[in-house]
Amino acid sequence: MTDNKITKLEKSIQHKIDFKTKPNGALGRLEELALQICLIQNTDSPELVSPHILVFAADHGIANEGVSAYPQDVTWQMVYNFLSGGAAINVFTKQHDIGVKVIDAGVNKDFEALPNLISAKVGYGTKSFLSEQAITKEQLTECKKQAKQIVTDVIEKTKCNIIGFGEMGIGNTSSASLLMHCLTNIDLKECIGKGTGLDNEQLIKKHAILKMALENNKLETNLPNDVLQTFGGFEIAMITEAMLEAYDNNCIILVDGFIATSAFLVATKINPAIFDNAIFCHQSEEKGHQLLLNYLNAKPLVNLNMRLGEGTGCAVAYPIIQSAVNFLNQMASFETAGVSNKD
Fold first, then answer.
1. Terminus of the chain with fewer CB atoms < 10 Å: N or C?
2. Verdict on whether the full-model pTM lies above 0.85
3. Which domain holds residue 33?
4. Which amino acids are annotated catalytic?
């Protein structure tokens, strides 16, 4: 599409927004969202089709170094909880009629075939990046291949045009903190938070371990794939590629909290244009998230002091996105309602 056509379309959409029965700008962020979604879909009559949240789960070798308040087994236990419908993400997606798929990207557990579980296991957890790279080149390639196929399949089977990304993986805030530090140059200490609920003493230990990991893995470049391979997780690598694939399929991308935003950060370093399709759903309580959002110049829709992950921020914010689309499509204009506009 040419710049002239984009300008013409944007003017048409803005006119439609402005001539609804309200003062200009009176619906605030909803008006911004409506314009963004229209531009993504290249229409002034957008629609949200078969929304889905993909929850990627994997284990991290760094979890065994004492960076988490919970044992690694919680990862596979929570996968079963997702599949039985007992987690927060299940409650919120059911409430808003959002489809959920759980992906075994690399959990340290073999799962039987279960409904809504997608098997894409690359390994039984990453290596501990305290002493070596977390992911091999071959594993990173496989993560990308699996993620592309998962997104393609969901879109083909459901005609989905809006996808949120959630995660589960004990230790993954450590990965996210190092990805953030390496790709933004924000001080490491500012990137590290309490994760699953560390106390102050445990947080100090976490910082010391991650600082040592940086020293032990001296990166020669800050290229996104190199950083991802060194400090990433299988679920983060798959989310990164899945977001890129969703963008290539012109989907709306719902970005959740700290972990998902770190994956999005990697994706922006690969293809900066992905930002146009992204809606940042909430601001996490995890310490680094606000700084990361600031770095990306991203405005989250809500701040509910959440820090759970799973894609819960996407699910909770989804009705706001629906409201943006619905007012544009259903609200009367001054002309159709016979209401006097301002002079």
1. C
2. yes
3. 3-47+327-337
4. 310
